[in-house]
Design brief:
The chain has 469 residues and is mainly alpha-helical. The chain contains 16 helices and two strands. The chain has one domain: Growth Hormone, Chain: A, CATH 1.20.1250.
């Protein structure tokens, strides 16, 4: 491969101010577990209401990603955007402690979704502007390390905080304080860079693009990335159809479709997983610990994924990781049977979710490399807009499907559908790899058939046929 992302920094912290991202990642990781439990335990809601909340949030994130990307280009004050995002989280987390109905939670969660993309563009542009070309790979790798360390800290806090009782409301105050701590630390810890870039610059650097589309710790979905505002007009739809016809022999459409199926399955599974654990009788602290196992293994495996991609190639790793995720989803479906659910449900989910954490770390790096190599020499901004629109659509569709299955189906059906969607994506990933190698290296030239003899034997005919592909 011509490029690779650096996933292991030379130093854990490339700059001291990157430590300011640890508290906010701790807050969002903890909140990702608290929110569904808040609906299920405190408000005595249902799995369907958890799915509705996710649908509202995901829809807000998609729409506001375009708006915040435009604002980031027009008003290039990175600290202000980060403070608005993180400080807003802190106040909204605290406000959630005062709610009494699910409808009130929906309204606040909608505002959280509105704020979510504000810091995503600002943080990536801040690193691009504050580090030189040579420093950026290490800087983005360090930024990812801060994200993973913060996630572990947040889940550990949630585990110990709820070990004795389900103190979810008081935990929200602590998570809000962590978010505010990041806002204060970054406001006083950094200065605006003298050189300022636009969101389109993210698409030209594999590390920044990789960081931008990495899974968001709060809900385990990727915040969409739109370098350009996608126009929705008759001409734009016509151009999209023309592009689709022209790209039929390129691997990118296949990568988009396979990624859509993967994101759909992941969102459907993740939205339903915490309600499933709660329905299986796990205590709140145990649910935090199951989530911790996922993040812990992800933290261990992720630094190795860059080297693994260089050694084995991203194509092979994507397929192995997707297959492993599918097996994990189907194994979770197996745990829903009464015979298995009576014994070992906690330890089984702990092991399965840990394996899924390692698989998503490998998949994220490998699929990002497959996407980036398809963008070389092309209009990366527009293509990333298409990819983000599909990813956002998968997030909303996964949440909506979870809501439908919550009413008419079961957890078992959700996990079976999730695993099946991943299995369907496997041949599409294979086709994308074949299309890439054909485009890169060309079709192999067929070997000309052997000259016929005057009296060919049956053995001679078979030999000639064998030489012709």
């Amino acid at each position: 491969m011509a490029f690779a992302v650096r996933t292991w920094p030379r130093r854990l912290v490339a700059r001291p101010w990157l430590l300011g991202f640890v508290p906010i990642n701790a807050a969002t990781a903890g909140f990702g577990v608290v929110l569904p439990l808040l609906i299920l335990i405190t408000l005595r809601g249902s799995w369907a209401e958890v799915a509705v909340a996710a649908t509202i949030y995901n829809s807000a994130v998609i729409l506001m990603s375009v708006v915040w990307g435009h604002l980031s280009d027009r008003y290039r004050h990175r600290r202000t955007f980060l403070v608005v995002n993180f400080g807003g989280y802190g106040m909204l987390y605290a406000l959630l402690t005062q709610i009494h109905t699910v409808a009130e939670l929906y309204a606040i969660y909608l505002v959280i979704g509105v704020l979510a993309p504000a810091g995503a563009s600002a943080s990536n542009l801040l690193i691009l502007e504050k580090f030189t070309e040579e420093e950026r790979p290490n800087a983005f790798a360090s930024f990812q390390e801060m994200s993973m360390v913060g996630s572990l800290v947040g889940l550990l806090i949630g585990y110990f905080w709820t070990l004795r009782d389900d103190a979810l409301l008081t935990l929200l105050y602590l998570l809000g304080a962590l978010a505010l701590a990041s806002a204060v630390a970054l406001w006083f810890g950094i200065r605006e860079a003298p050189r300022q870039l636009t969101t389109a610059s993210v698409a030209r650097h594999p590390e920044s693009l990789f960081s931008r589309i990495r899974t968001f710790t709060e809900t385990r979905i990727a915040v969409p990335f739109f370098p350009h505002r996608p126009p929705v007009t008759r001409d734009s739809l016509r151009r999209l159809r023309t592009w689709a016809r022209e790209e039929m022999r390129h691997e990118l459409p296949l990568v988009f479709v396979a990624g859509f199926l993967f994101n759909l399955a992941s969102n459907l599974y993740n939205i339903s997983y915490t309600p499933y654990l709660y329905s299986a009788g796990l205590a709140t602290a145990s649910i935090f610990l199951v989530n911790l196992s996922n993040n812990f293994v992800q933290t261990l495996v992720f630094p190795l994924t860059g080297g693994l991609s260089r050694r084995f190639g991203p194509d092979r790793l994507v397929q192995h990781a997707t297959y492993l995720r599918a097996v994990g989803y189907l194994a979770t479906a197996g745990l829903t049977f009464a015979v298995l659910a009576r014994n070992g449900v906690y330890s089984s989910n702990l092991a399965i979710y840990a394996v899924l954490g390692g698989a998503i770390a490998v998949y994220t790096t490998a699929s990002s490399l497959m996407l980036f190599r398809g963008l070389e020499g092309r209009d990366a901004g527009s293509l990333l807009g298409v990819n983000s629109a599909l990813g956002g659509g998968a997030a909303v569709a996964g949440a909506g499907l979870a809501g439908i299955l919550a009413v008419f189906g079961s957890f078992r059906l959700v996990f079976l559908v999730s695993g099946g969607a991943l299995l369907v994506s496997l041949p599409i990933w294979t086709a994308a790899s074949v299309a890439y190698h054909r485009r890169r290296h060309g079709r192999p030239q067929p070997t000309p058939p052997a000259a016929p003899s005057s009296a060919p034997s049956a053995l001679g005919e078979a030999s000639a046929a064998a030489k012709t592909p």
